[in-house]
Design brief:
Elements (H helix, E strand, L loop, with lengths): L2 E8 L3 E3 L5 E2 L1 E11 L2 E12 L5 E7 L9 E5 L9 E2 L2 E9 L18 H4 L14 E5 L2 E2 L4 E2 L7 E5 L3 H10 L16 H12 L1 E3 L5 E3 L13 H12 L1 E5 L4 E5 L7 E4 L13 E4 L8 E8 L5 E8 L1 H7 L3 E5 L6 H17 L2 E4 L15 E4 L1 H4 L7 E5 L4 E4 L12 E5 L5 E5 L1
Parallel strand pairs: 18-24, 20-22
Antiparallel strand pairs: 1-6, 1-9, 2-3, 2-8, 4-5, 4-7, 10-13, 11-12, 14-15, 16-17, 19-23, 20-21, 25-26, 27-28
InterPro entries: GpJ_HDII-ins2 (IPR055385), J_dom (IPR032876), Viral_Tip_Attach_Protein (IPR053171)
Pfam families: FNIII-A_GpJ, Phage-tail_3
Protein name: Host specificity protein J
Length: 427
């Protein structure tokens, strides 16, 4: 033990006159330690002021004698003998202090010392602006400029970044606070996150005449939660979904992409009823045209703000249908507006679902692939079939049926090229 902290005070400190006026008063106390058989005064304290409730103060005494030793607190002010003077003192506690350089691993430690005369017995509230963790980001990535140089070799470097893709990578692979003890780096598709991260870093209008990254993540995790819930929050910020493809945890993002395959009546399983494509539609109550997006406003003390996003044309057509959403890690009003707009457009435009069965060629797909459906019944004409033969010398194709080309306009035929990718060429 190196020092002692004494906590003491008064139950009340006020003197009432015969006219009923309440005046300040004072009381004197001595903190003493027995050294070499005699009592030595270490602190001479005088509490001055006026209070009708309990008031506590504290002092620290160092240079302590060898243990054991005695301590005491003496009241030098005479005790009150009248109800007009209230100055009863109390000794609340003492605290033993050991001056050892403690280690606080993985902890941001802040020490604050305040004057009790400014705050009294009130608890001092403190708020801190946290920048966040140092993450592992791609070695060819500059987090300040959000630029990717050259071809990534798959290695990482430590840096600060609020790109949600690399925040998610850190959460999945970190062995202390994340899922690193259960899910190794080899079990996460970093190449998919690399493409997602590039999409999130693209500059878009912020709605106020400037530009900003499409998606950033400024969030803090303060409580222990289920891994799937935290994973879902990060994925919701990036508009993607996690998928286990049998080997790794990969991610599928809702972003513009090219079609990877075309399906028609000739390459799907034909059911007995002769209708291979079965359609269903979303309910009108699930097609929201207004959304209240909750986000964190850094310009308002980091309080929660609400951004209202509406589709006026849809409201005029269907009536107002409002929903609410929380934008995880969102500290930008522009990003909150884009999140609400994405939700509205998704529900208003993606209203149709088609079910069909395929053979072995369907094994080439992964969740998130964009495909094209050529349904004769839906279009009202024959728009799909197979190629029976190809003559490279005459540049002709033999189809599995006769077709009639339109007399005017441009006719396109969709084929699969040598790389297995669908292409459209003019006939």
């Amino acid at each position: 033990m190196d020092r002692l902290r004494f906590t003491f005070g008064v139950q009340a400190l006020v003197e009432t006159t015969s006219k009923g006026d309440r005046n300040p008063s004072e009381v004197r106390l001595l903190v003493q330690i027995q050294r070499n058989g005699g009592w030595v005064t270490e602190k001479d304290i005088t509490i001055k002021g006026k209070t009708t409730s309990q008031y506590l103060a504290s002092v620290v005494v160092g240079s302590l004698p060898p243990r054991p030793f005695n301590i005491r607190m003496r009241r030098m002010t005479p005790d009150s003998t009248t109800d007009q003077l209230q100055n009863k003192t109390l000794w609340s506690s003492y605290t033993e202090i050991i001056d050892v350089k403690q280690c606080y691993p993985n902890t941001a430690l802040v020490g604050v010392q305040v004057d009790s005369e400014q705050f009294g017995s009130q608890q001092v509230s403190r708020n801190y602006h946290l920048r966040g963790r140092i993450l592992q980001v791609p070695s060819n990535y500059n987090p300040q400029t959000r630029q990717y140089s050259g071809i990534w070799d798959g290695t990482f470097k430590p840096a600060y970044s609020n790109n949600p893709a690399w925040c998610l990578w850190d959460m999945l692979t970190h062995p202390r606070y994340g899922m690193g003890k259960r899910l190794g780096a080899a079990d996460v598709d970093k190449w998919a996150l690399y493409v997602i991260g590039q999409y999130c870093d693209q500059s878009v209008p912020d709605g106020f005449g400037g530009t900003e990254p499409r998606i950033t993540c400024n969030a803090y995790l303060t409580t222990q939660r289920k891994a799937w819930d935290v994973l879902s929050d990060f994925c919701s910020a990036m508009r993607c979904m996690p998928v286990w493809n049998g080997q790794t945890l990969t991610f599928v993002q809702d972003r513009p992409s090219d079609k990877v395959w075309t399906y028609n009546r000739s390459n799907v399983v034909m059911p007995d009823d002769g209708a291979p494509f079965r359609y269903s539609f979303s309910a009108l109550k699930d097609r929201h045209n207004a959304v209240e997006v909750n986000w964190i406003d850094p310009n308002n003390g980091w309080e929660t703000a609400t951004e209202l996003v509406e589709d006026t044309q849809a409201i005029a057509r269907y009536g107002r249908n409002v929903t609410k959403m929380d934008a995880f890690g969102c500290t930008s009003r522009g990003q909150a507006h884009r999140a609400g707009l994405w939700l509205i457009k998704t529900e208003l435009l993606e209203t149709q679902t088609v079910d069909f069965s395929v053979g072995a060629e369907g094994l080439r797909h992964v969740p998130g692939d964009v495909i094209e459906i050529c349904d004769d019944d839906y279009a009202g004409i024959s728009i799909g079939g197979r190629v029976l033969a190809v003559n490279s010398q005459t540049r002709t194709l033999t189809l599995d049926r006769e077709i009639t080309l339109p007399s005017s306009g441009t006719t396109l035929i969709s084929l699969v090229d040598g790389s297995g990718n669908p292409v459209s060429v003019e006939v």
